[in-house]
C-alpha cells in the first residue's frame, strides 16, 4: 500500500508531536515534514510536495490562511486540512476560500480526524459539524444575499441537482442512491461540474452553491 505523505504545520511543538504520532501510527499515512510557521510550511510543501497538509490557523510569520492560499496556488494537487483551536466562522470561511478542503477544531477525536484526513485525500470536503450549520445559515437563509453566478447557467439540470446534493454533504454513493444512478455516473457528473464551474475541488463547488442561492433551506 502506498503511503500518503502528510506535512504537519502547527505553532506548538507539542501539537506537532501529537499529530505526528497519530499519522505515523497509520499504515496508509506518513509524516514527511513539520513546520512551526507559515513561511516554513509553504517552503517545506514546495520541497516535499506532500499529498496533504495539516495546517494550523494561527501561525507566526505567515498565518495559516495565507499559507494555505499560497500553497494551493503553487501545488493544486496538494490538499489542505485546516485545524484550529477556535471554530470561528470567519476562520472557516476564509480557509475554504483560500482553497482548504476541510476545517476542523483541534479537539476533534482522533478517530474522526483520521476519517477526515482520508476523506480529504479522496477529494471530499470536510467541515466541523459545529461550523457547518452556521455556514449554511449564513449563505442560504438570507444573512448574506445570494450572488448571481453565470457559471451555473452552463450546468445541465442533472448537474445542478447533483451539485445541490453535494452542497448538502452527500457523498457519491449517497447521491447515486438518491438519484437512482450508478456511482460511476455520479463521479462523472461531479467531474464535469468542477470543470464547468472552474473550481479546484468539491469544497469550492459547495461554496459556489451556497453563495449563488442554489441550495436553500428545506429545498
Automatic annotation (TrEMBL):
<dbReference type="InterPro" id="IPR058245">
    <property type="entry name" value="NreC/VraR/RcsB-like_REC"/>
</dbReference>
<dbReference type="InterPro" id="IPR011006">
    <property type="entry name" value="CheY-like_superfamily"/>
</dbReference>
<dbReference type="Pfam" id="PF00072">
    <property type="entry name" value="Response_reg"/>
</dbReference>
<feature type="modified residue" description="4-aspartylphosphate">
    <location>
        <position position="56"/>
    </location>
</feature>
<dbReference type="InterPro" id="IPR016032">
    <property type="entry name" value="Sig_transdc_resp-reg_C-effctor"/>
</dbReference>
<feature type="domain" description="HTH luxR-type">
    <location>
        <begin position="148"/>
        <end position="213"/>
    </location>
</feature>
<dbReference type="InterPro" id="IPR000792">
    <property type="entry name" value="Tscrpt_reg_LuxR_C"/>
</dbReference>
<dbReference type="InterPro" id="IPR001789">
    <property type="entry name" value="Sig_transdc_resp-reg_receiver"/>
</dbReference>
<dbReference type="InterPro" id="IPR039420">
    <property type="entry name" value="WalR-like"/>
</dbReference>
<keyword id="KW-0804">Transcription</keyword>
<keyword id="KW-0805">Transcription regulation</keyword>
<dbReference type="Pfam" id="PF00196">
    <property type="entry name" value="GerE"/>
</dbReference>
<feature type="domain" description="Response regulatory">
    <location>
        <begin position="5"/>
        <end position="121"/>
    </location>
</feature>
<keyword id="KW-0597">Phosphoprotein</keyword>
<keyword id="KW-0238">DNA-binding</keyword>
<protein>
    <submittedName>
        <fullName>Response regulator transcription factor</fullName>
    </submittedName>
</protein>
Amino acid at each position: 500500500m502506498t503511503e500518503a505523505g502528510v506535512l504537519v504545520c502547527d505553532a506548538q511543538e507539542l501539537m506537532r508531536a501529537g499529530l505526528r504520532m497519530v499519522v505515523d501510527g497509520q499504515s496508509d499515512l506518513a509524516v514527511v515534514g513539520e513546520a512551526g510557521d507559515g513561511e516554513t510550511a509553504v517552503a517545506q510543501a514546495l520541497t516535499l510536495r506532500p499529498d496533504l497538509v495539516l495546517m494550523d490557523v494561527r501561525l507566526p510569520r505567515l498565518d495559516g490562511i495565507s499559507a494555505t492560499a499560497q500553497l494551493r496556488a503553487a501545488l493544486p494537487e496538494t490538499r489542505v486540512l485546516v485545524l484550529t483551536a477556535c471554530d470561528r466562522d470567519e476562520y472557516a470561511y476564509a480557509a475554504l476560500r483560500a482553497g482548504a478542503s476541510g476545517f476542523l477544531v483541534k479537539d476533534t477525536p482522533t478517530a474522526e480526524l483520521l476519517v477526515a484526513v482520508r476523506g480529504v485525500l479522496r477529494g471530499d470536503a470536510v467541515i466541523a459539524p459545529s461550523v457547518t450549520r452556521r455556514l449554511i445559515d449564513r449563505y442560504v437563509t438570507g444573512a448574506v444575499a445570494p450572488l448571481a453566478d453565470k457559471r451555473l447557467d452552463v450546468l445541465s439540470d442533472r448537474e445542478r441537482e447533483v451539485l445541490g446534493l453535494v452542497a448538502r454533504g452527500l457523498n457519491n454513493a449517497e447521491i447515486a442512491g438518491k438519484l437512482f444512478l450508478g456511482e460511476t455516473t455520479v463521479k462523472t457528473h461531479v467531474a464535469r461540474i468542477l470543470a464547468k464551474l472552474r473550481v479546484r475541488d468539491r469544497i469550492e463547488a459547495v461554496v459556489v452553491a451556497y453563495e449563488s442561492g442554489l441550495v436553500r433551506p428545506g429545498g
